[in-house]
Specification:
By secondary structure, the chain is mainly α. Helices cover 60% and strands 5% of the residues. It has 4 helices and 2 strands; from the N terminus they run ββαααα. A two-stranded antiparallel sheet has the order 1-2. This is X-box-binding protein 1.
Length: 173
């Protein structure tokens, strides 16, 4: 019997072939020695004759393992588990590398933003000082601050609104 498993490492590329019985590989598969065997590559799932004819795709059935001995079944299960575990480790390693790079990028961006923030604070502080100096030059009495102007405009709006309401009441009587 011949068992074909995925490559142990993605770099090797070639699948491993494991001969479990003492029979030659060609006779174990039912083909004559030296004859060609069909090979199903995992990437060619849609390459079945039914799919080429436009027929409905058939659900792929699992291979029956009734002809295998318990030792062969256990060995097959161990091999599949080993491949799956390696794939999971590779995915985890790739994800960790991706996250580590993201941490480096975010720390770099954080440093840039902290520097920009510090520069803007210094600029704001300088402008506040310049504003105070200009106010002193002009004299505090001659300059109305923004808060005072805002409070004054609110008071005028309230008075004009009160006058409108009062005139409406008087006019309606």
């Amino acid at each position: 019997m011949v068992v074909v498993a995925a490559a142990a490492s993605p770099a090797s590329g070639a699948p491993k072939v494991l001969l479990l019985s003492g029979q030659p590989a060609a006779t174990a598969a039912g083909a004559p020695v030296g004859g060609a065997l069909p090979l199903m590559v995992p990437g060619q799932r849609g390459a079945s004759p039914d799919a080429a004819n436009g027929g409905p795709p058939q659900a792929r059935k699992r291979q029956r393992l009734t002809h295998l001995s318990p030792e062969e079944k256990a060995l097959r299960r161990k091999l599949k588990n080993r491949v799956a575990a390696q794939t999971a480790r590779d995915r985890k390693k790739a994800r960790m590398s991706e996250l580590e790079q993201q941490v480096v990028d975010l720390e770099e961006e954080n440093q840039k933003l902290l520097l920009e923030n510090q520069l803007l604070r210094e600029k704001t502080h300088g402008l506040v000082i310049e504003n105070q100096e200009l106010r002193l030059r002009l004299g505090m009495d001659a300059l109305v601050t923004e808060k005072e102007a805002e409070a004054e405009s609110e008071a005028q709006a309230k008075v004009s609104l009160f006058d409108m309401v009062s005139s409406l009441r008087i006019g309606s009587k």
